[in-house]
Structure formats: C-alpha cells, structure tokens
Amino acid sequence: MAPARASNGTTSSRARELRRTFDLLARTEPYYACARWRRAPYDATPYEGLGTGEYVPGVGVSAADAETLFDRLRTSTSDGWTDVVGHAEDANGGVKREVDEDAGSGEVSVVGNRVVRKPAAPVTSREALGSPMRLGVDVEERPLWGVDCYTREAILASVATAPAFAGEDRRDKRVEFFVKRLLPKLHTLGDDGWDAAVLAERVLEDAIAEGDEDAAAASRALLWAIHELDDADAEKRANESTKKKAKKAKGDTSTAVQTAQDAVSEVELVPKEHRVQFRIHPKGTGVVCINPNGLKAGTLVNYYIGEMYPPWQWYERQDAIKKSFPNMNLPSFFNITLERPAHDERGRHVIFVEAMHKGSFASRLSHSCEPNCQTVTFTKDGKLTLGMFTVRDIAYGEEMTWDYSCITESAEEYRTGFCLCSSPGCRGSFLTYAGNGAFTAIVNKKHSFLHRNAILFVASTTPLTKAESESLYVAGIRQCALEKCPDWVVKWAALTLQYIKLEEKELPDVLMKLPVTEYGRYDEIGAKYEAAGVASTRITNLVVTLDKIRYVLNRPGQRRDSFFRALSDDEVIDHLWSGEASVFRRFIITMVNSGGDKRNEARSASMSTAAMFEKTWTDTRVASALKAIKKSVNVVERPETAEQARARLLQVRAALEHAGDKAFHAQARDLLWLHANTLHYFTIEKFDLVLSPPVNIDDMKSQISCEMRTKLPNAVKGNRDKLLQKKYGPLYVWGQLVTWYKQTVYAPDASLSADRRGSLSLPDPESCYSAVPTKYTSSERRSLIKLMRSNIHAMWPTTMSWSFKNPTKVYGSPMFDEALRETFPKEYASGASFQTLLGEFERS
Ligand SMILES: C[S@@+](CC[C@H](N)C(=O)[O-])C[C@H]1O[C@@H](n2cnc3c(N)ncnc32)[C@H](O)[C@@H]1O
C-alpha cells in the first residue's frame, strides 16, 4: 500500500530534523553497519527434551569420565544452597554471611571484602524447585526478532516527532512505548518481523481498539518516519538506478520506459530497498511468557540441563568443530558452565554443559543486556544443578532473557556477536571481549610472558609451602581441581593464584582511571565488582588449565616431573665455557671461520679450543683477537664456579676491545655481555606427544549451515580423521601453562619459539661475524637497547641480525632474571637491576 506523503512545510522541516538525527546516529551508534541484513527467520534447532534436572554424558565421553562427571555433580553443600548472594557461603570454609541489604538498591553490593551480585529476587521455596514452567501453558518457544542499537535509537527518534513524546525529558516515555508496546508485538509477527511498518501498523490497530491515544500517536509518528524518510530514500535509490539503466539504453525510448516501469515495480516488490533505517533482525528461537497472569519474580523457569563434558574434552570438541567448519564465524552459544562452589569439601571444578541437542527450553532463552531471568546454581538432593529463574515480574507477551555473561577471547567473535536484545541499555555485543585493554592492563604489566615463565621456573625448582597450600584451599582449589596433579603443578597453581589476587587488588584503580565512555565511568563499587568478575573468570581458567594439563600428564608412560630444570653450577660452567657446545667455544669457532677460509672451517669444528689458540690464522682480525684473549684470559683451565665462567666471558669481551677492528667484533662483544650477565639458566625436558582419539562431531553437521571443510590443511595430509584428532605436542604443557588465562588457542605451544626470541632465549653465537660485517650497525644496536629498555618481554624482530636456534636448549637471559626479580622480589632480589645493567651495557 502506497503511504500518504506529507507535503506541508512543517512536516518537511520535521523530516529534515529527523534526517539530521539519523545522520548523527549513523556516526555514533555502533552496528549500523552490522553484517548483512537478513530478513528471513532462522530454522529452529531441534533438541531432545531431558527429564527434570537430568544431565547426560556428552558425545564421545568415556564411561570412566562420565562416572567422574556424575561424581562431580555431588556436593557437600546443603540442599537449598544457591550461588546467589544471601545464600552464598564464604569461600573460607562455609561461614554463612548475611547480605548487606542497605548497600544500595543497585545490583552490586560489597560483602566483607567481596563484591557480589545482589539477587534481584530471592529464589522461591524448595517446593517450587520441582515444578518448572510448562511449554504451551506458561511459556512458548517462538521465532523472535530483535533490533540493533542504531534501529532502537532511530525508532525512539521517530516516536519523538509525536508532540506527546517530544523532548529530552520524555525519553522514558518513549522507551516505555518501545519496550511495552513495540517489543511484545514484535514477538507475535512471525515471518513479517523484519518489517517495522507492519509492526507499527499492528501496534496502531491495538492502540485504537484500546483507545490509547498516546500509543496511537507514537505508532503514527513511527509510520510517518518510515514512509517519509525510509520509503523516500528507497524510491530515490530506485530512481537513480532507473536513470542509469535508461542512460544505458541510449535513446531507445521504449526500452527506457520499460526499464523505468520495472524499477518502480522493484520499489514495491523488493523489500530490501526498504527499512534500511529500521532494520529488525531474526535472532532464532526464543522464549515468550504466555501465562495470562505473567510470572512472578523468583520463579523457576526451568532446569538448564544438557550433555556434560570435562573441560579438556570440551575444548577438543570446539577445536574439531572450528577446524571442520572454517567458515563458521560465530558458534551457537547453547552451552553453559556448571561451576562447583569454592567452599564445597572437594572444592571447585567446572563441567561444560552443552544443551544444543539435548536439554530443556531454558537453553533457548535469548541474551539481554537488561535481562528478566538469571541462571542460578543450586543444590538439590545432594547434587548441583543449574536453573533459570525470573529476577523480576514478567508480563504476558514479554520475551524471557538472561545475560549470557559470555566472554570471548576473539575480537572477531566479539564484533560478530552484535546484540539484538533491543534493550535501552544494550552494550552492543552479546559477548564481552577478554582482550579489552582495561582487563589486560595488569597482565601486561605484572604477568607478561617472562613473568609467567618465572612462575613456572619457581614452581619447578622450589617446593610448595604450607601457606601456599592453604591459600589454594581457601580459594576452593582443592581435591577436584588438584587430584593427580604432580607437586610442581600444584605449586604453579598456588603462584598463579597469588597473581590473580594481586590483579583483583590493583585492577579497580586502573578501571577507575579509564576515560569516560558512553556508558559512563567506573565508580569504586562498580570497579571492584568488575575486578571480582575478572578474578572469578581467571580462577575458572586456572581450573580448566589444570584439567587440560592433567589429561596430558596422566597418559600412560608420560613423564611427571616438571619440564623446566634449572642448570646446576657445573652445567652452567659447561654451558658458558667448558662444554663441547659452550657459548665460548661456539663464539671462537664462529670467529675463526669468519676469516672465510673453508678449509679452516672444517678443521675448527673438530679442533680443540686450545688448539685453535695455537694455530696461525691468516685473517689478521682473527689472529690478533685470539692473541689478545690468550694474553689476558685463562683459556685452558676449567673455571671452578659459574661466577668465574661468567667473569671469563667478560674478560674475553674486554680483550676484543683491544684486538683492533672494533666493528668486526661489535656483535660478539654484545652477545658475550648478554650471556655473562645471565644469572638463572634452565633447560627443558620434553613430554611425549599425546594424540587423542578423533572427536565425533557428527551431531554438529546438521546444525551448522556453513560449509564443512573440503580442502584439508597440509598438516593433516589427506587424512580426515587427523583433522578431528587433537595433537598435544611435546611443548604443549609449556604453552598451555604460560597462556593459562586463554583456552581457545588450538596449539598454545606454536608461538613459543617466536615469543622466546631474545627475551627468554639468548641469540646464537653463530649470528655474530656475519658475512656482511657492517650488518650489526650502531643503529641496530641502538634500537635493540631501546627495545630491551622499554619492554623486557619483547621478542626481538626477525629483521635484526640475530639467530635463535638454541641447539643446546638452554634458556635464561638478563631479562628473565629481571622478570624473576619483579615477580618474586624477596627471593630473587640479588644482582643489579636490568635497567642498571643496561645502562652499563649502553656505555660500554
Ligand atoms: C542459546 S541460543 C538461543 C536460542 C537460539 N536463538 C535458537 O534459535 O535456538 C543462543 C543463540 O541465539 C542467538 N541470540 C540470542 N540472544 C541474542 C541477542 N541478544 N542478539 C543476537 N543474537 C542472539 C545467537 O545466535 C546465539 O548464538
């Protein structure tokens, strides 16, 4: 139906004003330019309904693992316990704490030193726990629609053109119309949900029938805006395309007329030309309240049940899904974690619950940034279970939603998860990005790559203390998380926990100093709440990492000792000076070979170091250097201590300064300095490779619409099963332990060798005396010093003339010493600070 078009001056100035608002919105509101606009509803994802409170083992979960999972559902917390504040017990051994009812009316309250979410409504009686809401009676599953943030604001701005809704002070009234009139109607529109005009017309009909003049005026204003602006734009676009076509038809009048007619009919027939300012998107199946009396706050909606997976297997499955469906940009979030409470006798653990194929309608609720339901973990019949509860009264026709609180480690996923909750306080994405600068501020400063390796080093070389063991217990990291973990892993967990606590203490300050955003600024309570949330996520990641590591360490025949082994004094002497592949010997060989005499090269590799000093070398730079070294350094006897070995490297360095041709020796001198100034060395003992059985993801094939991988990556070499098999390489444990706060990296060990360049692994002596003598210029030296000064963790760029093959697999550097000092100031205080050393190095 062609809309009536306003033609008077007032109306067109109103239209101009509104257009200006839209232009402004397009610049300020996120997600106007969200992915393609889909107008067809999604097919429902069918699922098998499970019985009340029933959990079942996931696909491919072994009988033994299933037994463990069922056992982990058992809890020592008493029946009726919930993780909602007020019922929550202190992590420290089950002391009940009262909720501070006066702490404010907001969602957040500080209890003791913990900041916790305040329940919006208490969970109702125990009897109510047995009777979830009924499909078809209280609630209904339906294909639902949602508006993006731009569209929400465009609708509110359009409604504001009705005099009764105009003005800054009437935003609440506009929002009320949007939330109470438009959204419930939207949930009834079926296939027409994409069309804002149909929505406005239906609301107008209702308003007229009810005699609600305000609502009628708001609907008319919206309809007017849609037709005045949106349709006009569509028509304009169509006219432009007609003109283009007509121009193409070059004078053929009959073709031009025909083309114009085609274009006009397109305006009417092609919906994609319309509503671009008012984009309503399908969001799949959701759940709507159809109980004529609505639902009271605190009602059990349903049990959130499904298939259980242990953490290691859950991530194996996710990896297999991602590898098989490379075009899937966002997974479907039907899963939830069931977390054991910290004060349970056996402590924390995490069970992954997948509800995509088996579960209840609780898993079909959409996300909302301003939800009316929440999930609650509670104890029933001695077992933990998850339930969805209403947190406020819900009216007939309202969509039921909860805050997914889903954290992603992928920036792409975060951007793809644009939120359609339509709530006025929508955050834009239904995911929270873990890489957000504010949340990584303390990690970057106090828990960077070398700090995390420092923790591993200390965990591998010193025993667990009683205080550390107690702190693990207090934090709920007890039997479930720690059983079958070797001592060094337990120590690692204790030290990592120390970091988590430090971060929780320091993060609020960082958050409060953040610049004001459109969502405002953190106040003290908000910042503490956020930091507590980050700490809780970190502890979950710690527990998940322990589970993954344990899986690898407990394979038959696998080594159980730590893979980090500190070098003894004797080994350090060999490494620096006396060994077959010592730094000193490799340096001498490299230098004598740099003379370019190929016959020497062959000989020097087998020649003893002492013999090399006796021989006459044709290259005068080499000959004079050897002479200078021999004169001032004892090159024959084995040093007695590691300290002496270091001192000798420095003597060699000093001798080179007097050996003539400074530029020739410049790089070697710097390398000798780095090795001589390293206090802590360690080596690694690899684990056996672990190959998991192929993951069975057949159940996913019918659910995921994107293409299954047809071309196999090279690494898989034609065998599809290999694609579905997780390979835990010999350095996997190292990689996972140093990236413990991330879980979705497929091969956390893959980037280790790059990360180690320079920072943890010192350059090879073979990189000195390059074929191009001028390569190590003073400007490269300056940039190297600048890099080390600004960031001890930085890997050295591949453009610099250093190599890092590290054939002896000995690790350690002055930068690593500094990280040890920073992480454990009491235990590793000795030695000059790295910055002081660097100052000396720069001047030398
Ligand atoms: C747990 S499922 C909910 C049920 C699902 N809509 C269905 O059709 O079965 C979660 C998925 O629903 C969609 N969804 C839920 N809430 C959303 C929201 N606020 N914005 C956008 N998509 C949402 C997303 O595709 C998300 O991955």
UniProtKB/TrEMBL annotation:
SUPFAM superfamilies: SET domain (SSF82199). It comes from the Eukaryota. Residues 234-257 are annotated as: Disordered. GO terms for cellular component: proteasome complex. Residues 234-243 have a biased composition (Basic and acidic residues). It holds the Pfam family SDG2_C. Residues 274-405 form the SET domain. This is Proteasome assembly chaperone 2. Keywords: Proteasome.
